[in-house]
Amino acid sequence: MRKLLLNSCLVVVLCMLSVEMSATSRKEKEKLSYLQLYQTKEDYFVKHLCFPANATLEQKVDMAARLVPTPEQLNWQRLELTAFLHFGINTFTGNEWGDGKEDPALFNPSELDAGQWVRTLKDAGFKMVILTAKHHDGFCLWPTKTTPHSVASSPWKQGKGDVVKELRQACDKYGMKFGIYLSPWDRNAACYGDSPKYNDFFVRQLTELLTNYGEIHEVWFDGANGEGPNGKKQVYDWDAYYKTIRRLQPKAVAAIMGDDVRWVGNEKGIGRETEWGATVRTPSIYSRSTENNNLLNVSSTTADLGSRKMLAKARELFWYPSEVDVSIRPGWFYHKEQDAQVKTLQHLMEIYYQSVGYNSVLLLNIPPDKRGLISEADAARLKEFADYRKQVFASDKIKDGMNLWCAAPQDSRIYQLEQETSVNVIMLQEDIAKGQRVEKFTVEALTPEGWQIVGQGTTIGYKRLLRIPTVKANKIRVTIDECRLIANVSRIAAYYAAPLQDESPQVVQESMSKDAWRLLSSSPVTIDLGEQTVIAGFTYAPAGAEAKPTTAFRYKFQISNDGKIWTEVPTNGEFSNIMNNPIPQTVLFGNKVSARFIRLDAKALNGSPAQVSMEELLVR
Ligand code: FUL
Fold this sequence. Notes:
Blueprint: E1 2-4, H1 8-20, H2 26-40, E2 43-46, E3 48-50, H3 57-65, E4 67-68, H4 71-79, E5 81-85, H5 89-93, H6 114-123, E6 128-134, H7 163-174, E7 177-182, H8 195-212, E8 218-221, H9 238-248, E9 253-256, E10 262-263, E11 278-279, H10 289-296, H11 308-313, E12 316-319, E13 322-327, H12 345-353, E14 360-365, H13 376-393, E15 405-407, E16 411-430, E17 438-447, E18 450-457, E19 464-483, E20 487-495, E21 518-522, E22 525-540, E23 554-560, E24 566-569, E25 585-603, E26 617-619
Bound molecules: beta-L-fucopyranose (FUL).
Beta-L-fucopyranose binds next to loops.
């Protein structure tokens, strides 16, 4: 897609130049030659471009600088803060992934109040909420015609309830945008794995959601699928899903397995310092994605998705900006036992700087509890988060930082601070409606000792929050060291953020001492506990909180009194979502058991034997 845009920035540059051209310094001549180049290149590529086969790197860089978002992608990026609501049958079973066999009778929130969700989030500065209308367990939060596995079969409101509708109405009431998460992986649908049949079923579900619930701004297709080697193989018809969205909700962005919004690559809230909206990564829904991405050796976790080095090898480029999804708690669904593990204010701010401050949109999950309310602990933390952000970002110390600055490489601009004042966060923004261009920048402060470099960065994009050591200054100088064509810097601001203490609650790991433990076998990991022990469950904490191809996914937990005769303890046998979110996995048995020996017989996601060490296990 191509479109022509009027280059308003050009006018500003011309004005600046007519004043400045009286002096004929080398720098100004260079600036003029950039301008002439720029003047002839007023074409923009919207969302996608293909490089000509024989394009030089210089030509590719020029084209990359003129790749711009669709209006929907731009509006989405400006939301900055969006909220995820993981709510469903798992809220009532305590699981992270349901297996689809749950009885709908379990779904019975006692005080569900979507108004409380939206008010809480709106007060905390969130601009959109995304609800898990259907998670992997297949239970639908709206009375769908496609399956009886929904709220219609639950006791909640005598089967007459509709969570999607209640949330829609609350969003309308409070002026909040609305998005839906619909899991393609469905562990309940009998037709899952019969590809054409399930694709039809899924399109019907999507059609219901996109037709009956007003304006939808984001559709979130999860890529997760834990079927494993003997599981059902469903070939998703992404094209049909995508066309359904475009037809019914043209203003919605399609996320993750969609091609408008890219998953940042982890569920920890960690963005990339160098984050390009214009990326070489081909979205997975395109059939050529495997070939293209293999050629460049890129995946969702690759650090560099847009540098000149990558452009040199790429055939195409996508405007595919990053979304950072992370939960305010260890799990995505509400679990009472995690009430003391709500992320601290300091942690949330760290996430904020590494998402919104790293040219991404933050999608923070706040899971409603069994009552159907955002819990008191989460609401209180959201308020602290909002109050702190307000305190920092309400007071910009720079007077004239909103004047558009069209900067050529090496250009500097001096910004006057209101008075000599302390600052430690610099905000930089590019007008990405004209593409993302800055590759390197430097920030200096004028102190009594003269100009001092206080920080440097790479990409800016829609927003970059650069944390610098606290400095007392009355002027800030920003230099665009490297950029593609002319950078359109739309705002520079400076703030002071008061230091935060880490008030993480001491999570007491109630577990028994491992002093007497003896490893009897490493595969499967078999342990002599040293004495007959009463245990209520166990924890598997992957080393370094990192997921590896050998991380345990499906397991059997066995106990023995003599090390010869083994009994399996009933569990759900799966460390759900461990590959994306490798936090400690605690499994509590319904009843306590007594054993001298324990064994975790586990398989990795690909079905091969997992590698679990004694250090990664605890009993409870
Ligand atoms: C993952 C899912 O498996 C999790 O349960 C959660 O929904 C998260 C947002 O995406 O891939």
